[in-house]
Structures are given as structure tokens and as C-alpha cells.
Amino acid sequence: MKPFLAQLKFDGRRLILRNFSFQFFSILMPAGFYLLFTKVMVSGTVPVSFSLQYMASMIVYSGTINALFGIALILMHDREKGLLQWYQLTPSGVQPYYLSVGFWSMVMNGIAIVVLGMLAVVVNHVSLTLGQWFSVAGVALVGQIPTLLMGVAISFLNRPETLSIVSNLITFPMAIVSGLWWPMSMLPSWLQPIGKLMPTYFVNNWLGAVATHATLKTTNVIGVSAWIGVLLVLVIFETRQLLKRGDGVVKA
Amino acid sequence: MQPIIQAEHVSFSYGEQAILKDINLTINPGEIIGLIGKNGAGKTTLLNLLLGVRAKKSGHLTLFDQVPGGPLTKRNIGSMLQGDLPIRGVTVVELLTMAVTHYPTALQPKQLMADLALTELSQQQLTTLSGGQLRRVTFALALIGNPKLLFLDEPTVGMDTNAQQAFWARVKALKAQGKTVIITSHYLPEIEQVADRILLLQDGRFIFQGTLAELQRQYQQVEISFQTSLALTTFEALAGVTAVSQINQVVQMSSTDGDKTLRALVPYLSHLQQVTINRESLATIFVHLTKEV
């Protein structure tokens, strides 16, 4: 327990308090987008349902950015710079490290939920019961798992430059086609079916339904579960390949 | 005395490619071992087997009488490997404070930083440190668990001369405390200075295991040069001489037995001027040996 608590303290500082990228890209940017599209660039009052749906979209977007840019880069960096190897050679092993990174990635998403939720309440005067807020947080945290697994999967890439390109190529097209930035009806008709297969689409719809009291569609839950299954298999396969290649072990 | 490391007929291969072949090794407490070899000789793989991150294919290998890689061996091992942990958003003291919790009998970070002259850097973020400073932090991280066995891989890369001297003084102090140190380095003069024993690995096999003196006795060439008006043929048949050449009036001789050759030269001393005698360094012996095999 002691190594895990110390690891939490260690990672809390570097992943959140001193992590400008997280503060800017995962919190300030989605918050800015939220204000822009629900307050600044609209005329008149936006419907409450739109304020809630867009809050859900920005929570999903924040989690996606955090997983595919933040967590992926941290995992790669820690492996490349020898931190993972150091843990591997200690009596406690790598478990406290992975548990801590997992914990903080959930907290990071939690911060986004709190910030975006507060903006929705304060600026757009939305009102949800405490139970609904807990449901939003629960769905957002479960819904983050597919993108988090994607982040882990791409963190196995060999070079930070490649990771940066891949993160950009996945995150922004996925955010656009799955309707996180603007409604899917604005996209070309041939693109919409593709968007409806993205994990962010399923999470966004599921979260939006919870926030707006809409009917829950089981397809969204199935979609998220399927993505978790597929990505879990991919991550396990990559980890085995990595160990087989000998990467992440001692380099002399 | 119970050996710290014992290897008998250990081998390792990647598929069909044999990397380590019939490795036999005994390392005792308090020894400083220099593990040397060309790139690709198998040093990394041997290090991986000893650290327990890879498993041997055959043979018998124990550390502290245990199979490598278990918690009991890990708590007795410290390693300063390549890669200097320039982790973003973390200070030196924060890294060491976290590291302490991973070992049951760890040292105090404050005392360790004082011992390694890191106190002034303790509040600095790792990403602001120079290469040499980071190397010292990595050394502190290797020592934090108060290990009995220390692996040092290219330990002084990036350190300035003062830091290097302080580093080797510290390594000698560790030996005095009974710690065992295994050093892998391409800087052979450093190995020459501190190692009690040298293990020379070539193509996955040890081609030499012994002290530097034994290595020198076995393989060292002595280079003798002087000016003389005598004919070159005078020196060709002298004891121990393996090669003789002459440029202008300067004769250069190589000998496998410097003492015998010098005794044989005594009758000619009145004809020799500007005599110089050079013993080959470990680096030169290394080059000869690894070329020959």
C-alpha cells in the first residue's frame, strides 16, 4: 500500500499539478469550446437539452484528448526514459505505477466533468439531480475506457514523433465524425455511418441520454463494450509483442 | 564464502540464434567486476538474465541463492542502467522520496543526497539537470534500496572529471562496505582502475575471466623503442620479441615477455639511446583479443 500511496503523490504532481498540457488541452480548451458554442456564437437562448448534450460532448472530447495525447505520451515517455524499467526491477514491480496512472486518468476525467458541469450550471443554468450527476460521472468514466485503451495501444509506438502524428490522426477526425464538435447531420451522408461506429459516438450518445433524460439505447452500451473488448485484446497482444521483442527491458 | 552470483552452463538464444553459450561464473561478495565485450557480445542479455527480466534457456543461475527476478533478489539489487529518467514535472527529492517506498530497507533520501553532493539540486526538476547531474541522480536511485549487489551500465557517461572521480571513490567505498559491483562500460581505463576481476565476453562466451594482472600476464604486449646504430637483426631473436621494425634509427619492438626481453637487451645498453617502454593498456589488450577470436 505504501508504494501505491507514494506513487499517487508522485504522479499527482506530474500528471495534473505541473502538467500544463493537461490543464490547457484537456480542461481549458473543451471549456472554451463549450462557452463558444453554447453562449458566445449563438443568438438568443440555447435549449437546455443542447447545453446538456454539448456538455456531454465536451466531456467525451476532453477524455479523448487526455487519453490519446496525455496518457499515451506519458506511458511512452516513462517507458523510453527508463522509469518503467526501474519499477520493473524494484521489489514492488510495476503494479503501483499502472494503478496510479489509471487512477489519475480517471481523476483527470473527473476534473473535466466538474469544470464542464459547473459551466453548464453557472453559465447555462442547467439543472440535474445529484443522482443524475453521479450517473453522468459514472458513464463518462466507463466511457473513457475505450479511448484510454486506445491511448495505451498507441503508446507502444517507437517514437514520440510518430505518436504525435497518430494521436492527431485519430483524435480530431474521430471527434469530428462522431459528432463531438457539431451535429452529425452536418456531415456528408457517406461519412455518417462511419461516425456511428466510433467509440466516442456511442459514449457521447449514452452520456447525452443520461444528461437529458432521453431514452437509453442499448446499442450505445453494446458499442462501448465491444470497443473495450477489441481494444483490450489489442493492448494484451501489443504487450506480449513488446516483451517478446525485449523492449522495455534492460538496454545496455 | 557464499557466492552472490553463480552460473553453471547457462545459455540463452533468440529462436535459432544463440546469444549466450555455456556461461560459467561465480561472483563473491565485495568484488568489483568489469564486464566487457564488443557490441553484440552478449553483455546486455547476460545483464537481463542476472536482473531477472529474461529467463535462461538452459543451465543453472542463482543470485543470493534464488532464481533471478523474484522479490527476494530484487530487494538486494540496485541498478544504474542506460537512460537517465528525465521525467517531467518531478524534482530530485520527489523522485527519491517515491523510490524509498519500493524497498524494505531503503536509505534516507536526505542522507543519500548529501553523500552524493545532490543536496543543492534536490529541489530542481529533473528536466532542468545536465546529463552528468542526471547520471548522479540515477546513481542515487540505484543506491536508494541499500542493495548488496549493484549493476552499473556505462555509469560515467556525461559526467565531468570531478564527478567521475567522486563517483569512482564512492564505488570503492561501496566495495569497502562489502557490496558487490558489476560494471559494464566501454571506458576501459575506468574498469582498469577499479575492477578486481575482468570478464571478457566475446560471441556469447567468456574468453577471459580473471584479474587485470592475470590478463596482462597472459596477453599483454610490451612495446620497447630506442635509437641505435646497431643492425635490426641484432634484436630479432631476443627472448619474447614478437615483432621488430625500424624507421630511420628508431627501433620498435613488441614483446610478450617484457622482463625477459629487457634482460636480453642489457648487453646492448651502451648502444641504445632514448629508450622507452610502454605496457599495453586494457583497452589495447581488449582490441587485440577481440580481433583475434
From TrEMBL, chain A:
Membrane topology: Multi-pass membrane protein
PANTHER family with a match to the protein in the record: NODULATION PROTEIN J
Pfam families: ABC2_membrane (PF01061)
Primary localization: membrane
Compartment(s) of residence: Membrane
UniProt-recorded name of the protein: ABC transporter permease
UniProt keyword annotations, A-Z: Membrane, Transmembrane, Transmembrane helix
Annotated source species: Lactiplantibacillus nangangensis
Keyword Ribonucleoprotein in record: no
Residue ranges of domain ABC-2 type transporter transmembrane in the record: 15-205
Coiled-coil residues: none
Residue intervals passing through the bilayer: 20-42, 54-76, 97-121, 133-156, 163-182, 220-237
Superkingdom classification of source: Bacteria
Automatic annotation (TrEMBL), chain B:
Source organism of the structure: Lactiplantibacillus nangangensis
Lineage, uppermost ranks: Bacteria, Bacillati, Bacillota, Bacilli, Lactobacillales
Keyword field contains NAD: no
CDD domains membership: ABC_DR_subfamily_A
GO molecular function: ATP binding
Keywords: ATP-binding, Nucleotide-binding, Transport
Keyword Hydrolase in record: no
InterPro entries, sorted: AAA+_ATPase (IPR003593), ABC_transporter-like_ATP-bd (IPR003439), ABC_transporter-like_CS (IPR017871), ABC_transporter_ATP-binding (IPR050763), P-loop_NTPase (IPR027417)
Protein name stated in the entry: ABC transporter ATP-binding protein
Domain ABC transporter: start-end pairs: 5-228
PANTHER family assigned: ABC TRANSPORTER ATP-BINDING PROTEIN
